[in-house]
Amino acid sequence: MNYNERLQNVTILGATGKMGSGILLLTAMEMADLKLKPENKDKEYVIYAMARRQKALSDLMIYIQEQVVKAAEKKTIVLRKVYADRKDLINNGEIINQYVKDVMNVIRPVTTIESAYESNLIFEAISENPELKIQMISQIDKNNKNKPWYFTNTSSIPIGFLDKEIKLEGRILGTHFYNPPAVQKLVEVIKSANTKPELSEFASQYIKNMKKIEVPSADFAGFVGNGHFMRDALHGMKEAMTLTKEMSFVEAVYLINKVSQDYLIRPMGIFQLIDYVGIDVCQFIMKVMAPQVKDEEIHSPLLDRFMTLGVKGGQNFDGSQKDGFLKYEKGRVTGTYDPEKKQYIPIADVASKCDSKLGKAPSSILPWKVLVGEANKDEILKKYYFELKSMDTLGAKLAVSYAKRSKEIGLKLVKDKVAFSEKDVNTVLLTGFFHAYGPINDYLK
Questions:
Q1: How far is the first Cα of the chain from the last one, in angstroms, to the nearest whole number?
Q2: Architecture (CATH level 2) of domain 223-432
Q3: pTM score
Q4: Contact in structure between 324 and 275 (CB atoms under 8 Å)
Q5: 196 vs 19, 145, 155, 348, 382, CA distance in Å?
Q6: CA–CA separation, 327 vs 329, rounded Å?
Q7: Percent helix, strand, coil in the chain (nearest 5)?
Q8: pLDDT (tens digit, 9 = 90+) per residue, 62-75?
Q9: What architecture does CATH give domain 3-217?
């Protein structure tokens, strides 16, 4: 079965979730593009968007249609060539409408798992729950005579574990898209020792067609991205708890979040990033990683405490941020959660005092949005870190410590053969986390 045939009948499990909806959008457009080729005009392409609730599926179809319109508007010139033989499609609006119709015609929203019993390829994007993944995939595989391939979007569960538990004999591959899949360029690809090479070959072509970047990872819980992120988060939380010996929890969280964003020149601070992913998701990933890591503790009592308090973070379906360590209003951070008072303290109440404690920022510091667009980033960062390490302020000391730890984490991922190269670690942080520079660098020499 070639690439084209494999994509003629596909199922997305968890299609209404943040990840599933993005994978559905990308795959439906790829299938529609294939069908629009002259040699495929008589072939049938179907993608089953599976979820439990009909209302969620209805909302999903509205979302997908809106996104396809946006995608079509960006590639009108290409679509004009695709529809060159359609004399009834004259202006751009008509061409866009036709493409939207062709993509939407591929999708079948369903609430029953039986729809997957005829699929050749199944993308699994349900919750990060190994028992549920095993249960659903096992049920499909027992009833599907096609011996389908399974691409799991797990961000932490070893592929070899799923393969063994479900008895797939190598018909499963980790394809870890980053959130949101329609925008993010990175896809981590994880093979188990048993994964059939045909799956990897197909995935590479699929990812290339999506115009995304493929980075391989060894089959070790957390992989490269979360392998770095979880340890980076643990460092930030540990530093914050150390600071609580001399200041309030709210102040400590504000300081570390500001240092990890502004001083490290990242798109968001570490506590904001934890909220973005979800406190519950971070806690779960650490639980998956912990048994496999023998030389360090992958656990956060602080995450446990916030989960007990019912503060979970995460995102709403529309992409808006839920409150977690920090409070958000229209995308802006406006407060920090005080676990003793069980309420959010306005940022305005602590900002001035905390900024004073951090001390004067380096004169060569640049905002993340500015740095990412600079052609001579390397020289700018060498100068910046030279200034940073020569300063004696609390902010500078915390930033230098954080940068050193980030590099240590990256190097250990390579040493432990989770990442195949230093370049792969940097690529994951640059593309998957939108960092302006990779953690493995020589700026602090």
A1: 53
A2: Orthogonal Bundle (1.10)
A3: 0.93
A4: yes
A5: 25, 18, 20, 56, 44
A6: 7
A7: 55, 10, 35
A8: 999 999 999 999 99
A9: 3-Layer(aba) Sandwich (3.40)
